[in-house]
C-alpha cells in the first residue's frame, strides 16, 4: 500500500526542516535561503505572517473561540512538522558542533569565517547601484561590527535576561537577507553555551532564548521590513559592513586556539565554496521560477 499523500507531504516538509535546522545552527548560512531553494519560502512567510499577536490576548482572557479562529488562519500542520524537523537538526547538530569547537577549533572557526565573508559579499552584490553613500554606510557598518565583535571579550554571563536579549536579536536576523541567527548568537558570546543547553535539553535557557526571539519578531518585524523596502541599498551596505567588521571575533577566537593561516586556510576556502554553492542553487531556483 502506498503512503497517504498527506504523509508524503509531511515527510517532505520534515526533511526540509532538517536541512533548515542544520544550516540555521551554523553561523553564516541562513535557513531562510534553504527554504527558498527547497520551494517552501513563500508558504513559510505566509504561515508566519498569519500569526496574530492578538491571539495571546485571547488566550489570557480565556476567549478560546477567538483563539480557535486565529489558529485556523495559520498553516499549523505545516509549521508544526517544519519546526519538528528544525528542532531535530538542532539537537543532533549541537553535539557535533560542540565536539568540533572543542577538538578542532582552528578548522571550525576558519570554516565559519569563510561562511561569513562569503555571505557578506553576497549581500553587498544585491545592491543594484552602489554609490558614495553606500560606501559610507559600509564603512559605518564595518566600524560598528568591529566594536560588536569585541563583545566576545566581555563576560556578560549567560543569565536568562541575557539569553532573552540574545534570542531577540538572533531571531530578528531571520528576516534580514543572508544573516544567520547563529552568527548573531556567536558574536554575542552565547553560541557555545546555547549549543550545550540544546544538547542537555536545559529548558529554562532554551525557553528564554526562544521567548526573546518571538518577542523580537513581534516587535521589530514591521520596522525592519520597512527599512529594507525604503532604504534598501543603505541597509544592505550596513549589514555587509556589520558582518565584515564583526568577523574580527571569529579570527581572534580561532587565533587563540592556533594558527588560522597555515592550519585553517583550506577550511576557510571550504566556507566560501559552501556559500557560493548555496547562492548558485538559490539563483538557479529563482531563475527557473520553480
Notes on the protein architecture:
The chain is an all-alpha fold and 290 residues long. It has one domain (5-288). Helices cover 80% and strands 0% of the residues. It has helices at 5-24, 31-37, 41-49, 54-61, 64-72, 76-103, 105-124, 132-149, 160-172, 181-187, 191-200, 203-230, 232-246, 248-257, 260-288. α7 packs antiparallel against α13 (232-246) and α9 packs across α10 (181-187). The protein is globular and about 60 Å long. The model has no long low-confidence stretch (mean pLDDT 84).
Please outline the helices and strands.
Blueprint (H helix, E strand, L loop, with lengths): L4 H20 L6 H7 L3 H9 L4 H8 L2 H9 L3 H28 L1 H20 L7 H18 L10 H13 L8 H7 L3 H10 L2 H28 L1 H15 L1 H10 L2 H29 L2
Quick rundown:
The chain is mainly alpha-helical. The protein is built from 15 helices and no strands. The radius of gyration is 20 Å and the shape is globular.
Amino acid at each position: 500500500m502506498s503512503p497517504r499523500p498527506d504523509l508524503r507531504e509531511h515527510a517532505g516538509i520534515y526533511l526540509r526542516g532538517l536541512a533548515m535546522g542544520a544550516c540555521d545552527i551554523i553561523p553564516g548560512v541562513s535557513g531562510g535561503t534553504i527554504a527558498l531553494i527547497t520551494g517552501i519560502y513563500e508558504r513559510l512567510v505566509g504561515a508566519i505572517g498569519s500569526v496574530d499577536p492578538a491571539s495571546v490576548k485571547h488566550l489570557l482572557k480565556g476567549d478560546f473561540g477567538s483563539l480557535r479562529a486565529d489558529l485556523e488562519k495559520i498553516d499549523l500542520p505545516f509549521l508544526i512538522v517544519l519546526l519538528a524537523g528544525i528542532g531535530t537538526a538542532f539537537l543532533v547538530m549541537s553535539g557535533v558542533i560542540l565536539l568540533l569547537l572543542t577538538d578542532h577549533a582552528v578548522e571550525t572557526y576558519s570554516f565559519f569565517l569563510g561562511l561569513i565573508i562569503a555571505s557578506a559579499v553576497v549581500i553587498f552584490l544585491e545592491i543594484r547601484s552602489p554609490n558614495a553613500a553606500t560606501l559610507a554606510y559600509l564603512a559605518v557598518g564595518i566600524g560598528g561590527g568591529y566594536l560588536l565583535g569585541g563583545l566576545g571579550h566581555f563576560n556578560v554571563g549567560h543569565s536568562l535576561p541575557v539569553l532573552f536579549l540574545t534570542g531577540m536579536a538572533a531571531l530578528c536576523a531571520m528576516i534580514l537577507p543572508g544573516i544567520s541567527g547563529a552568527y548573531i548568537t556567536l558574536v554575542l558570546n552565547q553560541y557555545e553555551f546555547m549549543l550545550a543547553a540544546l544538547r542537555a535539553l536545559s529548558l529554562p535557557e532554551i525557553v528564554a532564548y526562544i521567548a526573546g526571539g518571538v518577542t523580537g519578531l513581534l516587535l521589530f518585524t514591521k520596522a525592519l521590513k520597512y527599512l529594507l523596502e525604503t532604504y534598501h541599498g543603505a541597509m544592505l551596505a550596513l549589514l555587509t559592513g556589520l558582518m565584515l567588521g564583526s568577523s574580527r571575533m571569529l579570527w581572534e577566537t580561532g587565533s587563540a586556539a592556533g594558527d588560522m593561516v597555515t592550519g585553517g586556510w583550506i577550511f576557510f576556502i571550504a566556507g566560501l565554496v559552501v556559500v557560493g554553492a548555496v547562492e548558485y542553487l538559490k539563483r538557479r531556483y529563482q531563475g527557473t521560477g520553480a
